[in-house]
């Protein structure tokens, strides 16, 4: 009774926030509710019925197990509830999406009561979230000539669960809502500083865009009850930045439709659009929810009579509006003609948004149902001993005779599942691939756990080589929200089979290492496919895709992912780096030179960047691959030389061994298995049996970019350009400026060296610069705070061994203490250096932030509005991105330095340099 009264108290507290009762996932609470339902005179009985029917989470939550068993009692007549008939009990089971509900349905279908068995079979035929234990029961019953089992398997083989669903309407009417002008970051849809509430969908929905925008959306829905609201990024790309299932969930919550009347706050079918399309990660997440993402192309290049682009005084291409999508515009999506219409007039072809595969996702209410549906159809056909009937749209297989393979094409062909035997596929082909490494991070991990529960998964797929749950996004502050959420997450993931940053038993020290840094170490095969719940899942070994929490859950549960093979853009280098330049400057210059070479078109968007950077070990190369997320690339591949790859693998082995020594390996000895695989890979390279991955000489690329290192003469800064008259050009990564542009006098309020874009060499640069400047000036005085956060503990350990950490401690005014982590986020900074705990820190923006309105110079990757720094009434906050030496010097001087000051400060310091391989120089020269 106490637990129920606690729930009522929570309901009252939520009511004050304008919230409904929180969905129930606890077996203890639901058991109390069921007791009250059984007691016909209980004063709470009516409410208890409502909570049981409409407010219990499905899947493998402990509450779902209790609910399924009680429904079984009702069906068997062991319990009688007037309001829940056996027929209604079956309907409720049909909405529970796997887990105990499938076990209960199989118990009933394979039981002795023929009438009940038939009813259970009809429900089972609609279900797809079955696992090996479930199909094994059907297989055994089939062998024993059980007619019901045979009937269910035949239905699965025909894919009745899909074919009997209602068809997608021919016309979908939408009314537009401009969510923002320019690129829309997922931070606008699901702010990082609200990450703690993501698993509470209704509460988290309150943070989407603004309360005013939410009211405007509601008003549009009231005016257009027969239409869906389409959220639009005007003059920009929708959903750039972090991979947020919570962002799509919020859009669906406000603009989509309820997935089931018995599952609270789970909505599907959002419709989103962008002038420049949808970010690749965000589009995948839209597919998860059975939504539609449209590349609107409503602003186009203005051309002269000769078809040449017209440019303004600044040399930028002038855009003109092809058609208006202003808020309140009514449009029609025609799913048959695959066109977008306004008042009966055709606007654009949208066939890419309505491919046969995407139409299946829309019909099924999401991509999971299709993935599991295909799997259950295959298993059923195998048990029956028949060929798999053709039901689903055939995978697109593009094979071009005589054309070589890019690196990503090679990786996809190596890892593909279900290919036509002997067929070699090129870009554009739809492929189902096995996933080697999976990563879950801590602010999306709670949602990944929910997704795993909803698809009734209980253990990691045996085909995954290794999987890791990080603690980096909540590393800065061990506050009440983190204390409530993170231990629960770590226990769930540890039980599921992942290596976890924190030990639920408390036997090893908590590691808050940045997720993609750890994944970069545990990836021990450059032919690997990696899926990670963070947009910066960009490895310097293998090909890695940042993904939403749902896609991560699917990869963990099935060991697979499905996607088209992306096109590639080849990036090579010529010339020589200047001694005073840092490799980060090469990264920014790549972006600048690419945009110059292609007239402002971002050829990286939605494609693989194949970067030929083979002389850089994994840590340094990661600086390039990590940044590619900000250029809206789908992923990146680092082409490495044999010796360099061996060096990187040896470093990775050492770091994995440290994890083993800490006690982080599990019963399956996943970490030891990775070391064994690394040894095998090193032996293959050394013997010449299987050299490092390279593309074929006759591979075909969408574009080729040659970066001229000789042209990089000054440090380069990515500027959010917060005051640009054209709103759509603010907060993009397209504005790259050299140091001289700032005239040596632009004020800097805070410097940040940290997060995933730095490696050990960067931290050594910090210590060497401080030593250098003290020698030159007699002392070091900070005119602005400098926040330093190493990405991993092993970097700190190595710096301690090499003497650099002692130097950093000498100049710092604060050093983190794991024994007493901060309980509250820092709100004020002094002009000194802070040595913060390893992790994301300011880059994430969900815990620590700079003061509102600050100008921040950071090594981070994030310059989005409100991420690192929010606006104040006095001025806009801005986060400019630069190399480590520029950031350090700027914090010391309190301003961006001149080129002369910079050169003097870095004199004699070993910066992160890069020399193109001789092979590539020959190719470029040719």
UniProtKB/TrEMBL annotation:
Aconitase/3-isopropylmalate dehydratase large subunit alpha/beta/alpha domain sequence ranges: 410-894
Pfam family, one: Aconitase
Molecular function, one GO term: aconitate hydratase activity
KW Metal-binding (keyword) present: yes
Keyword presence, Iron: yes
Alphabetically ordered keywords of this record: Iron, Iron-sulfur, Metal-binding
Matches recorded under InterPro entries: Acnase/IPM_dHydase_lsu_aba_1/3 (IPR015931), Acoase/IPM_deHydtase_lsu_aba (IPR001030), Aconitase/3IPM_dehydase_swvl (IPR015928), Aconitase/IPM_isomerase (IPR050926), Aconitase_4Fe-4S_dom (IPR036008), Aconitase_B_HEAT-like_dom (IPR015933), Aconitase_B_HEAT-like_dom_sf (IPR036288), Aconitase_B_swivel (IPR015929)
Coiled coil location: none
Matching Gene3D superfamilies: Aconitase, Domain 2, Aconitase, domain 3, Aconitase, domain 4, Aconitate B, HEAT-like domain
GO terms classed as biological process: propionate catabolic process, 2-methylcitrate cycle; tricarboxylic acid cycle
Protein name, entry field: Aconitase
Source organism of this protein record: Epilithonimonas mollis
């Amino acid at each position: 009774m106490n637990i129920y009264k606690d729930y009522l108290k929570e309901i009252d507290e939520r009511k004050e926030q304008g919230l409904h009762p929180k969905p129930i996932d606890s077996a203890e609470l639901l058991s109390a509710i069921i007791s009250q339902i059984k007691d016909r005179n209980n004063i709470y009985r009516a409410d208890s019925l409502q909570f049981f029917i409409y407010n219990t989470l499905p899947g493998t939550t402990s509450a779902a197990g209790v609910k399924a068993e009680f429904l079984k009692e009702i069906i068997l007549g062991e319990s009688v509830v007037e309001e829940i008939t056996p027929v209604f009990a079956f309907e409720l089971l049909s909405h529970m999406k796997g887990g105990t509900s499938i076990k209960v349905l199989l118990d009933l279908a394979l039981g002795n009561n023929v009438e009940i068995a038939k009813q259970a079979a009809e429900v089972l035929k609609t279900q797809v979230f079955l696992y090996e234990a479930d199909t094994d029961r059907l297989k055994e019953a089939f062998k024993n000539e059980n007619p019901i089992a045979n009937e269910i398997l035949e239905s699965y083989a025909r894919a009745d669960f899909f074919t009997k669903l209602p068809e997608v309407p021919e016309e979908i009417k939408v009314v537009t809502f401009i969510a923002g002008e320019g690129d829309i970051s997922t931070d606008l849809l699901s702010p990082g500083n609200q990450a703690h509430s993501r698993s509470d969908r209704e509460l988290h929905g309150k943070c989407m865009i603004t309360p005013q925008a939410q009211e405007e959306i509601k008003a549009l829905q009231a005016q257009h009850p027969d239409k869906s609201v389409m959220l639009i990024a005007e003059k920009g790309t929708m959903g750039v930045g972090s991979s947020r299932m919570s962002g799509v969930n919020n859009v669906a919550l406000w603009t989509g439709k309820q997935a089931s009347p018995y599952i609270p706050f789970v909505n599907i079918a959002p419709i989103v659009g962008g002038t420049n399309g949808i970010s690749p990660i965000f589009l995948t997440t839209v597919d998860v929810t059975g939504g539609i993402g449209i590349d609107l192309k409503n602003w186009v290049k203005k051309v002269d009579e000769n078809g040449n682009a017209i440019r303004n005084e600044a040399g930028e291409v002038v855009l003109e509006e092809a058609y208006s999508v202003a808020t309140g515009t009514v449009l029609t999506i025609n799913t048959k003609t695959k066109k977008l219409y306004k008042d009966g007039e055709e606007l654009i072809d949208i066939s890419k948004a309505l491919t046969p595969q995407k139409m299946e996702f829309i019909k099924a209410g999401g991509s999971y149902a299709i993935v599991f549906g295909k799997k259950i159809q295959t298993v059923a056909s195998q048990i029956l001993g028949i060929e798999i009937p053709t039901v689903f749209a055939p995978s697109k297989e593009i094979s071009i005779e005589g054309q070589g393979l890019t690196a990503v094409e090679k990786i996809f062909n190596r890892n593909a599942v279900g290919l036509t035997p002997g067929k070699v596929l090129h870009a554009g082909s739809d492929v189902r691939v096995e996933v080697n490494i999976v990563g879950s991070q801590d602010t999306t991990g709670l949602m990944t756990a929910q997704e795993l529960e909803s698809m009734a998964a209980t253990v990691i797929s045996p085909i995954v080589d290794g999987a890791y749950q990080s603690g980096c996004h909540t590393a800065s502050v061990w506050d009440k929200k983190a204390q409530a959420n993170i231990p629960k997450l770590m226990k769930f993931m540890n039980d599921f089979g992942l290596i976890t940053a924190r030990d639920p038993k408390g036997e090893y020290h908590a590691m808050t290492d940045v997720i993609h840094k750890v994944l970069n170490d545990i990836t021990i095969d450059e032919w690997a496919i990696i899926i990670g719940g963070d947009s910066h899942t960009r490895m310097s070994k293998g090909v890695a895709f940042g993904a939403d929490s749902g896609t991560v859950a699917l990869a963990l549960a099935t060991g697979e992912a499905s996607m088209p093979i992306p096109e590639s853009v080849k990036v090579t280098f010529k010339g020589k780096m200047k001694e005073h330049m840092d490799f980060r400057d090469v990264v920014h210059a790549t972006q600048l030179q690419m945009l110059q070479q292609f007239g402002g078109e971002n050829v990286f968007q939605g494609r693989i960047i194949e970067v030929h950077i083979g002389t850089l070990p994994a840590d340094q190369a990661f600086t390039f691959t990590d940044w590619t997320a900000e250029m809206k690339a789908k992923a990146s591949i680092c082409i490495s030389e044999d010796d360099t790859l061996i060096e990187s693998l040896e470093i990775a082995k050492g770091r994995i061994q440290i994890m083993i020594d800490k006690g982080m390996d599990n019963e399956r000895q996943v970490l030891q298995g990775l070391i064994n695989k690394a040894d095998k890979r090193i032996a293959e390279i050394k013997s010449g049996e299987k050299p490092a991955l390279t593309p074929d000489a006759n591979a075909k690329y969408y574009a080729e970019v040659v970066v001229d290192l000789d042209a990089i003469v000054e440090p380069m800064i990515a500027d959010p350009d917060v005051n640009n008259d054209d709103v759509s050009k603010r907060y993009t990564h397209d504005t790259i400026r050299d140091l001289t542009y700032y005239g040596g006098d632009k004020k800097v309020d805070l410097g940040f060296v940290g997060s995933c874009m730095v490696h050990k060499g960067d931290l050594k640069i910090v210590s060497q610069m401080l030593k250098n400047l003290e020698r030159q000036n007699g002392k070091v005085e900070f005119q602005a705070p400098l926040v330093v956060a190493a990405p991993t503990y092993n970097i700190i350990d190595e710096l301690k061994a090499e003497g650099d950490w002692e130097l950093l401690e000498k100049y710092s005014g604060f050093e983190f203490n794991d024994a007493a982590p901060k309980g509250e986020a820092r709100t004020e900074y002094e002009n000194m250096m802070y040595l913060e705990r390893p992790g994301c820190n300011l880059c994430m923006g969900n815990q620590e932030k700079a003061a509102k309105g600050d100008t921040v110079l950071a090594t981070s990757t994030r310059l989005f509005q409100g991420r690192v720094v929010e606006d104040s009434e006095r001025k806009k906050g801005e986060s400019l991105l630069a190399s480590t030496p520029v950031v350090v010097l700027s914090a010391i001087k309190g301003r961006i330095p001149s080129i002369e000051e910079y050169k003097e400060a870095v004199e004699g310091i070993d910066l992160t340099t890069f020399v193109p391989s001789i092979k590539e120089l020959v190719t470029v020269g040719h």
